[in-house]
Design goal:
The protein has a single domain, classed as Rhodopsin 7-helix transmembrane proteins (Rhopdopsin 7-helix transmembrane proteins, Up-down Bundle). The strands form 2 sheets. It has a two-stranded antiparallel ribbon with strand order 1-2. A two-stranded antiparallel sheet has the order 3-4. Strand 3 and strand 4 form a beta hairpin. With 377 residues, it is mostly helical. Helix content is 63%, strand content 4%. The N and C termini lie far apart (60 Å). The radius of gyration is 24 Å and the shape is elongated. Helix 3 runs antiparallel to helix 9. The chain contains 11 helices and 4 strands; from the N terminus they run αββααααββαααααα.
């Protein structure tokens, strides 16, 4: 005797069960869709019926991970929003982009991580019904794409300051508000077409989460997925690479110019005393820029690849775990972003040390030149 999916001993004999050693037993021909509630068939593709029942511990482990990520995201992004909005010196127009990124990540895990983490222990499949599955997927798309577009805007802001310098466009409070309004109108507009007949949302992987319906063969779904792949992944990736590669080139070029000038003047460096630290600070700008691009690429590429394989490639490669793991990896962005875009901000660390010294982050001393230069990144 042991765990059963359907709550009765008869069902245990007819479908599958766990023995006292937690080994999964199921009859020949059993599939993930056995016993699937009728109301969920609308959002579950027959593709998943070719796979045998998944060990419940896989889903339970995922539920624990989702709840853990939710706690980290809510804490980390909540701190970012609290500090940046409370401290007057941090309430600059461009810093509102960091606040918007934190809000997007906060909303992502609150609407995506918590329902799944709880739901997994309520039912072996999505427990909230077909419409809630579509709404869940739509909200995930809204908050996820909002975070992506906001990272593009942050990249532009840093490019504008570091590469363009005084010739760059100054972002005022009004311009920042317009940009933020555009971001949210844009992400909602590109996320709701499935509710109006273009594309669709459906359950995925081990059937505990929902996302784009990337397994339908008709051109309606294919065209939507191709469009989403371009506007949600390819275009943002190209723009981010352009901005941050420009930042790296500008920093490297500046360092080269300083060294050339120092050589002409027959000195080791044009900097002296504490200014020597500025050199490593400028190189840190380049390292942070490269890190931003690599993290973005690493986190989102597996998920984008799976959706394209499911839509245009060999679908036999899209197994439940192969589908579920990239979706989970994409959620980790909401935990990483506060550290990449906020904790690396020296003024944020200074304010955090002042407001919440119990965290032991940063210090209250006056920022050095190294910190000042790093803040521009």
């Amino acid at each position: 005797m042991g765990y059963n999916r359907f709550g009765s001993n008869e069902a245990m004999e007819e479908n599958f069960y766990l023995d006292r050693y937690y080994a999964l037993h199921y009859k020949e021909g059993a599939s993930m869709l056995d016993g699937l509630p009728e109301e969920l068939k609308e959002v579950v593709d027959p593709h998943w019926g070719q796979f045998p029942p998944q060990h419940p511990f896989v889903a339970h482990l995922g539920g624990i991970c989702y709840l853990f990520l939710t706690a980290l995201s809510v804490f980390g992004n909540g701190l970012v929003m609290y500090i940046f909005l409370k401290c007057k010196k941090l309430r600059s127009p461009t810093n509102m982009f960091i606040v918007n990124l934190a809000f997007s990540d906060f909303g992502m895990m609150l609407t995506q991580g918590f329902p799944v983490g709880v739901g997994i222990f309520m039912s072996p499949v999505w427990p909230y019904g077909a419409f809630a599955c579509k709404l869940y997927a739509c909200l995930g798309n809204i908050f996820g794409v909002s975070a992506i577009v906001t990272m593009v805007v942050i990249g532009y802001d840093r490019y504008n300051v570091i590469v363009k310098g005084f010739s760059g466009t100054k972002i005022t409070a009004g311009k920042a508000a317009i940009i933020l309004l555009f971001i949210w109108v844009y992400v909602v507009a590109i996320s709701i077409p499935p509710f109006f007949g273009w594309g669709g949302y459906a359950s995925e992987g081990v059937l505990v989460t929902c996302t784009y319906d990337y397994l339908k063969d008709d051109w309606n779904h294919k065209s939507f997925m191709l469009w989403a792949f371009i506007v949600n992944y390819c275009f943002p990736l190209c723009v981010i690479i352009y901005f941050y590669s420009g930042i790296v080139k500008a920093v490297v070029s500046h360092e080269r110019a300083l060294k050339a000038q120092a050589k002409k003047m027959n000195v080791d460096s044009l900097r002296s005393g504490t200014e020597q630290n500025a050199e490593s600070a400028e190189m840190k700008i380049a390292k942070v820029a490269i890190t931003n691009v690599m993290l973005w690429f690493t986190i989102w590429t597996p998920y984008a690849t799976i959706t394209m394989i499911g839509q245009f490639g060999n679908r036999s490669l899209v197994t439940p775990l192969v589908s579920q793991l990239p979706a989970f990896l994409a959620k980790t962005a909401s935990v990483i972003n506060p550290f990449v875009f906020a904790v690396s901000h020296p003024k944020y660390r200074e304010a955090l040390a002042s407001e919440l010294p119990c965290l032991g982050i940063g210090n209250e001393s006056k920022p050095s030149e190294e910190q000042t230069v790093t803040a521009k990144a």
